[in-house]
Design a protein that fits this description.
mainly alpha, 2 helices, 0% strand
Amino acid sequence: MYKYKRVQFGWFLSYLLILTLPIVIGTLIYRTALQNNYIQAQKHNQSMMSLVMNEMDNQIARFQNEISRLSFDQTVHLVCFWRTAIFQT
């Protein structure tokens, strides 16, 4: 009887090990994959923000160049002066 209980206990432990081992391994793999996804998402967000920042800097530089060009344009000065002269009379 004692030998039979010992064998049953051995089977129980082996089945328990067989059941828990995949759960533990799956949990470790899931956690590693989750961490990798988080790191890649951060890198992707950083690169997208860098692209947006560069695009905005380029747009602002274009606007500044255009404003600078328009501020020295004689035609713009004449039109502004002409409008001012019309509205003042």
